[in-house]
TrEMBL record:
<keyword id="KW-0378">Hydrolase</keyword>
<dbReference type="InterPro" id="IPR013108">
    <property type="entry name" value="Amidohydro_3"/>
</dbReference>
<feature type="signal peptide">
    <location>
        <begin position="1"/>
        <end position="26"/>
    </location>
</feature>
<dbReference type="InterPro" id="IPR011059">
    <property type="entry name" value="Metal-dep_hydrolase_composite"/>
</dbReference>
<keyword id="KW-0732">Signal</keyword>
<dbReference type="GO" id="GO:0016810">
    <property type="term" value="F:hydrolase activity, acting on carbon-nitrogen (but not peptide) bonds"/>
</dbReference>
<dbReference type="InterPro" id="IPR033932">
    <property type="entry name" value="YtcJ-like"/>
</dbReference>
<feature type="region of interest" description="Disordered">
    <location>
        <begin position="192"/>
        <end position="211"/>
    </location>
</feature>
<dbReference type="Pfam" id="PF07969">
    <property type="entry name" value="Amidohydro_3"/>
</dbReference>
<feature type="domain" description="Amidohydrolase 3">
    <location>
        <begin position="76"/>
        <end position="532"/>
    </location>
</feature>
<protein>
    <submittedName>
        <fullName>Amidohydrolase</fullName>
    </submittedName>
</protein>
<feature type="compositionally biased region" description="Basic and acidic residues">
    <location>
        <begin position="193"/>
        <end position="204"/>
    </location>
</feature>
<dbReference type="InterPro" id="IPR032466">
    <property type="entry name" value="Metal_Hydrolase"/>
</dbReference>
Amino acid sequence: MRKSIQIITLASSVAVSSLICSQAIAIEQIYFGGPIVTMKDSALFAEAIAVDEGRIVAVGSKEDIEALADDATERVDLQGKTLMPGFIDPHGHMMSAGTAVLSQADLNPPPMGKVTDMAGLIAKLKEHGDSNPDAAVVRGSRYDDTLIAENRHPTREDLDQVSTTRPVVVTHISGHVTVGNSKALEMAGVTAETKDPDGGRIAKDANGQPNGVMEGNAGALLRKLIPKDTKEDELAAIRKGSEMWAAAGFTTANDQFGDPAIIDAYKKAIDDGDFKVRLTYWPRVTTIEAASKFPTVKSGTDVSEGRNLIHQGPLKLVIDGSPQGYTAHFSQPYMTQRAHDHGDYKGFSYWDDRKAFFSFVKRLHRDGWQMTTHANGDQGIQDILDAYSAAQRTYPRNDARHTIQHAQFTRPDQLVQMAALNVNPSFFIGHTFYWGDRHKNVFFGKARAEHISPMKGALEHKLIPTTHTDTWVTPIDGIQMIWSSVNRVSTSGDTIGEGQRIDPLDAMKAITVNAAWQYFQEDIKGTIEPGKLDARINLARLVIS
């Protein structure tokens, strides 16, 4: 297993440089007494830094930095601990993660949780339902069918053991499969005659009746039963999420939502002193009309009245689902076929109308949006590469910085395409640990599994990759991301793709300098150098260093 590392993440985004300025007035703080890793290749290490009014003002030798101080300057001795740029989350779901902790039964399997069989899953849901008798829906999340002894999804019959009078809705650990009990299906109006929605599948039992398992976009039929969060619920979820990200050394979190009003909830949390990190959010919509309701099309724009606390990032698209949920879209069949797959199942696209998808991507590109697209299977990745390419040919743009999220089963030839298009990946590197054994031995076989999240290949093609945990899917943990990038070791101790291992510095760059660059924030974050923001977020009550 990975070793713990003591790191102080002072900078919300900063990098090394020689001392470039002297001041007539003293500065607020200086940091010294431990390794300072700036993430700036030209000067990777420094002895000390100076901070004033929420910015790094000088980086250099301890002697030079001390010369800027006076008796009023706070001197912070690192006592041998490492100071480096604060981690930047390139892909997460902060509010949903907070909500999951606060209001859903934790159905995680080991090593993240304790659910190992269907009886344990049902018991967890019953306990949660009994503890929340007034909840309109009994909710649970993060179960994994491949780590349950029965090796299957729960069905409506299983969830009926929890309740027959209240809807019960649970979500797979991938987020791309949703299951409901009989009451939930009844309330959602799902019957044997209900047609599969665009980009979704309704699973049926031997009698042709819906068995409760809803794949891909079909899950929305059940999720609509969940009452809308109150303002108090939103603020509580933000507060919990903020605590989780800050505790893991992150100074910038990520969230994705379709309602721009949620921006106001984050601003309220900041004003109340309940938000201890910065935020980059992504509009997640499927129409131009919905996109137009957000404040800007320009990624990297500060929308927090000049405080640099909330930035709008790229618009989020989804082209397929999850490999471990059998909803990712591949050009070749899954190695292990389920009983109902007829031997050639490859997953499916979440956009059945390819022409409509290409048209939407072209329009967004034309209008100046940066786009980031969820794509796991190699066919999903190919679809979005083709769409980006078509958009660029029709409406050429310099430095669009479109990205692909997860990009797990990127083929070698697709890395070449990414380089040609200046499209960069953000890899869900934790799959090598959490699901590596099953990708190799169950889902896809050795050749495909060993090329998942090809970090080394991306670097060899001069791409600027990042890594993420997709929290709530796996715990927010920057050290885990670095460890998995370097070692690629699974839960069984197997190495998943030794040829794609990278060195620790490149792994650290993936969640600092690279992450800042991917979303047009390299001028304020990612390295330790003069002019970059420090970790105090410009508000004295929000100290997180």
